Amino acid sequence: MTMIKVDGVELPTPSSFTWGLQDISAAESGRTDDTTMHKNRVGQKRKLNLGWNAPDWDTACDIVQAVNPEYIEVEYPDLLDRNKHAKRTFYVGDREAPFKCWFIGNQRMEGLNFDFIER
């Protein structure tokens, strides 16, 4: 099974994939005078950090173009959905791709990294 799909299109398997779950706390959350922490979780959102090591120019272009829309539907392995992929709407954080090699016949990026942040 493909690891990551964006809007139904398979992405190349990333070199690194970090799954994250962030709690969203209510505005009135925090410590009270009795030093008790009141979390008051109102929701949870996923954050996926993906990276590719040394993609060639065409592969880097394909990945960046696939994740360029404001919101994307991502299918990915989710630790809270045992033995199956989840499908959720994300937006993409800052994209970064330092140039590594740039000569005839070998145009590569050092890497390509970004976060998917659940809407």
Q: Can you tell me about this structure?
A:
There is one protein chain. The protein is mostly beta strands. It has one helix at residues 57-66, and strands at 5-6, 9-10, 16-25, 30-31, 37-38, 41-53, 72-77, 85-92, 99-103, 106-109, 111-118. Strands 2-1-7-8-11-6-3 form a seven-stranded antiparallel β-sheet, with no helix packed on it. A hairpin with a 2-residue loop joins strand 1 and strand 2 (9-10).
Keywords:
119 residues, mainly beta, 7-stranded antiparallel sheet, 8% helix, elongated
Q: Number of DSSP strands? A: 11
Q: What is the helical fraction, as a range of percent?
A: under 10%
Q: How many helices in DSSP terms?
A: 1
Q: What is the radius of gyration computed over CA atoms, rounded to a whole number of angstroms?
A: 18 Å
Question: Could you name the ranges where pLDDT drops below 50 across 5 or more consecutive residues?
Answer: none
Structural class: mainly beta
Strand content: over 45%
Taking the sheet with the most strands, its summary is: 7 strands, antiparallel
Question: What is the overall pLDDT average?
Answer: 91
- End-to-end gap: 25 Å
What sort of overall outline do the alpha carbons produce when their principal axes are compared? elongated
SSE blueprint:
Elements: E1 5-6, E2 9-10, E3 16-25, E4 30-31, E5 37-38, E6 41-53, H1 57-66, E7 72-77, E8 85-92, E9 99-103, E10 106-109, E11 111-118
Antiparallel strand pairs: 1-2, 1-7, 3-6, 4-5, 6-11, 7-8, 8-11, 9-10
Short description:
With 119 residues, the protein is mainly beta.
